[in-house]
Fold this sequence. Notes:
Layout: H1 3-8, E1 18-21, H2 32-46, E2 54-58, E3 60-61, E4 69-70, H3 79-87, E5 97-103, E6 106-113, E7 135-138, E8 141-144, H4 147-153, H5 157-160, E9 166-172, E10 177-180, E11 182-187, E12 190-192, H6 215-228, E13 230-232, E14 234-238, E15 244-253, E16 259-262, E17 291-294, E18 299-308, E19 312-315, E20 320-323, E21 328-337, E22 345-355, E23 358-360, H7 362-370
Parallel strand pairs: 1-2, 11-22, 12-23
Antiparallel strand pairs: 2-6, 3-4, 5-6, 7-8, 9-10, 9-14, 13-20, 14-19, 15-18, 15-21, 16-20, 17-18, 21-22
Amino acid sequence: MDDNTFQQFLYLSEGESLDFKRDQYKISKSSEDEKSEFVKDIVAMANSWRKTDAFIILGIKENNIKPNTLFGITDHIDDATFQQILNSKTNRPCKFSYETYTYQDLTFGIFRIPVQDRPIYLKKNFGILKPEVVYVKRGSSTAEASIDEISKMGLSLQEENKNPILNLAFFDPESENNLGTQIKCKTQPYLILDEIPSYFEKEEMFLAFSVNRKYYWELYSYSNFNFKFSKIHFILENSGNSEAKNIKIEIDILDKDIDIIQNGDEPIEPEKYNSSTYRKIPTISSKDEIELKISKNKITISSTIANIHAKDSIQLEGNVYINPRISRVINLNCKIYCDKIEKPFEQKMEIQFNQSMRNICWEDYKKEIIDN
């Protein structure tokens, strides 16, 4: 665990793979009913339908409006005590680990429950729990699994792992490094304080009719582009044991008050003269290239990939450029579809932007940026 990973919990909601508890479980000098609350939560999370590790975080209260509230815990219990309470009571070992983590001078308890063989249930009564009843986490609540649901849990972990497991990450093509699902970007655009003059060359007055009067403004937009926008690349990984085919990736951004363009739409270096000899060559997008769609409620980045082999990764063709306009955090909600997978792989990604505007007069900008 590190601060970047822990900070994600401040903006996430409870579900099949995440639960928040305001206080520590009542273990020391407590009744079986109180201890069984801990057992129920761990077993239900172990039985939940998910593809990744699950977490129970002690010391955080979930809020409808994020961020969640940090309280921390003061009653510390070691991992061995929790293990002893639970694993002598279930039909098969229930795998989990417990650790404490300090953040902003507060201590939190963190249970990590990996994907494992199911179903897991108690062999006899314990507190409020009944024997041979399979408890399962559904959304933010816990329920008793149906017979049909239990039969599907009987599918061995080995069979489940024959499927592909797809994850999206940010990517740096220069270093060829996978940057994970959280990155930080810094933008420092220039703002011209005075008027940008029209372009005109006296020595070529006979060509005045063809001079591009907007040349300086276009040159400013072109040269300022890389200061204003961050270039974002993605990479797709298949950590599963089988090939994924006919993959479709959808990345939704709900922040509408940003500037975003796809590769091929970035400005080109302007020309001093208006002439039919200077024309933009139309950008022809390949089938697998990133596409951008801006609708009323959201921005969607999409891409398709024919296939990706097991234990392999593929960089998405193309990229997007984002201008955050202000310092902010932009959240990306990702869904990845492929053949033979009933539900899409879902994940969240995050870009933390730090933007600082630099004010400058035109002549200084021209001398500092353009003429150099």
